[in-house]
## 1
Amino acid sequence: MTMPKAYDPQEGYMYQILVMCPNDREYEHCDYAVGNADKKHLIQNYKLAYGAGFRFKTIMLPQKYWTKKEVKVV
């Protein structure tokens, strides 16, 4: 399966949320979610905010991105 052009993993997140506008053919980046509960909450709110016709898709990011790496300042 190929990833959409909007695929952009970020540190500290488990999911990337994408949105497709009614007249578009590609998904665009919408937001990131830390966990499953956060993902459900965000998608529910975005569905209310964006309205009918918009489609949402989530991508589970690779496990190496899930936790933020601590950077020690010397």
## 2
Amino acid sequence: MSLSCLVCSVGLAGLSLRHPARAVVLERWSGICLVLGLSLLGIGLYGARV
């Protein structure tokens, strides 16, 4: 799940380069997906260690 969020954030960042009119919205969602993916990765790593 976390990996898919991280891949999604990279994809949205790439799309923002191709569509300058929608760049603000795409970059915002890219950042949200990036934070969500990193949070899920941290929770997963913590859960695997405990």
## 3
Amino acid sequence: MKELVGYCKKCEKEIYCIDGFLNGLIQEDSSMICFKCNEEMEPIKR
């Protein structure tokens, strides 16, 4: 099952809940962000 739950706060991409899994992240302010935007915001740890 695929259900639209909101939009990315940064790029406005649609964020879905697919079979019980959110394809994005919920921020502290209750907004959502897609995985791609989250990766761009976080520094790479090696």
